[in-house]
Design a protein that fits this description.
Elements: H1 10-18, H2 26-36, E1 41-44, H3 51-65, E2 76-79, H4 83-97, E3 106-109, H5 115-121, E4 127-130, H6 132-140, E5 151-154, H7 157-162, H8 166-173, E6 181-186, H9 191-200, E7 205-208, E8 219-225, H10 231-241, E9 247-250, H11 254-266, E10 271-274, H12 280-292, E11 297-300, E12 315-318, H13 325-332, E13 342-348, H14 353-363, E14 368-371
Length: 379
């Protein structure tokens, strides 16, 4: 199937062509026509499956036909759980909207930075991408009004609820018109997501893109037995000896992320850590450098994983294992995407042995292991 069969306008098709995108993802094939028809949609698909463009493209198409907005009364509201995802979604709107004949203004607002520049930038915004807390701050300051919302998008709804945003989201629902189009997207479907569906969605089109059983087959997984004190030297050895150029390293805490990045830099490896305790400017700068390929190693925690969407990321290293098997699969799923192979390496201490066995059982795939004792980590 091609984009031409989905009902998008010629100007949007040209914008897609300009981005050198040739065919839609499965969720785009189903979601775009439904959104264009004004239907409510609940889309369940893993991160990196094309969910964002599946609502961005039809929303831009509609705004081309109905672009007018009262000042500070936005037409489209996209709620997201993290600052990084807010910026990422805004970038997708701008990526496709830049070459369109009708100018569409998109703004991302989030906490952790001064509210004043965001208040000033809210003039004549069509699409507002927001984290719930900052949005409520702006509403209370009369910087933005939600009475003209025609389309509400809740992106990464599962993450939104797990991060404790339910009360804020409930307050936002009371501020927006009852008559609107609702689009809910999530990586997983659970009881909380289903309850939101029953509450806000009206006869929704349910789109569920099942993860292919062999979806992790493109990922070459390898584990290294290592003692806790030799993890740092082993990580540096793997990066230098393998000449790894773009590496995403996962740790279990913000402290460890900083510690790992510091030691990599002291050993001549360009690295940066991003986590919730870093300033927004520092986080966005590190993420931009990493995506551009000018930063060799990015060290992060699971909290920010969904804001890191890189189509051809070659290497993921689990410096520490996550708590759940689902998080493990989500981590390694950062690589091996867009039909491109990738490497996922895990550093396993004796204390990790049982937990890693549980992860492999849940994944239904056994990982080849290497004993690092035989490696010359100083070489």
């Amino acid at each position: 199937m091609s984009f031409t069969s989905l009902g998008l306008s010629r100007s949007l098709l040209n914008a897609i062509k300009d981005q050198k995108i040739t065919k839609p993802f499965p969720i785009q094939e189903q979601a775009i026509p439904a959104v264009l028809q004004g239907k409510d949609v609940m889309g369940i698909a893993k991160t990196g499956s094309g969910k964002t463009a599946s609502y961005v493209l039809p929303i831009l198409d509609d705004l081309q036909k109905n672009p007018s907005t009262k000042n500070r009364h936005v037409n489209v509201l996209v709620l997201v759980p993290t600052r990084e995802l807010a910026v990422q979604v805004k970038d997708v709107f701008q990526q496709f909207g830049t070459s369109l004949p009708e100018r569409i203004k998109t703004l991302a607002v989030y906490g952790g930075v001064s509210i004043n520049p965001q208040m000033q930038a809210l003039n004549h915004v069509n699409v507002l991408v927001a984290t719930p807390g900052r949005l409520l701050d702006l509403v209370e300051s009369n910087a933005v009004h939600l009475s003209e919302i025609k389309t509400l998008v809740i992106d990464e709804a599962d993450k939104m609820l797990s991060m404790g945003f339910k009360d804020e989201v409930d307050r936002i629902f009371k501020l927006i018109p009852k008559k609107r189009q609702n689009l809910l997207f999530s990586a997983t479907l659970n009881e909380d997501i289903d309850s939101i569906n029953q509450w806000i969605l009206k006869e929704p089109v349910l789109i569920r893109i099942e993860e292919e059983k062999d979806s992790i087959e493109l990922i070459k997984q390898l584990g290294y037995w290592v003692s806790e004190e030799k993890k740092g030297p082993l990580l540096r050895y793997l990066i230098k000896n393998g000449d790894l150029k773009q590496v995403l390293v996962f740790t279990a805490s913000t402290y460890k992320a900083d510690n790992v990045a510091d030691k990599l830099r002291k050993n001549g490896i360009d690295a940066s850590a991003i986590h919730s305790k870093k300033s927004q400017t520092a986080r966005l700068d590190s993420l931009a450098r990493f995506k551009a390929g000018t930063l060799r190693v990015l060290v992060t925690t699971d909290l920010l994983a969904r804001g890191i969407d890189i189509e051809f990321l070659p290497h993921v290293i689990n410096y520490e294992l996550p708590r759940s098997p689902k998080d493990y699969i989500h981590r390694i799923g950062r690589t091996g995407r867009a039909e491109s192979p990738g490497d996922a390496i895990s550093l396993i201490t004796p204390e990790d042995k049982h937990h890693f066995k549980v992860i492999q059982k849940k994944m239904k795939k056994w990982v080849d292991m290497v004993d690092s004792e035989h490696l010359n980590l100083k070489g």
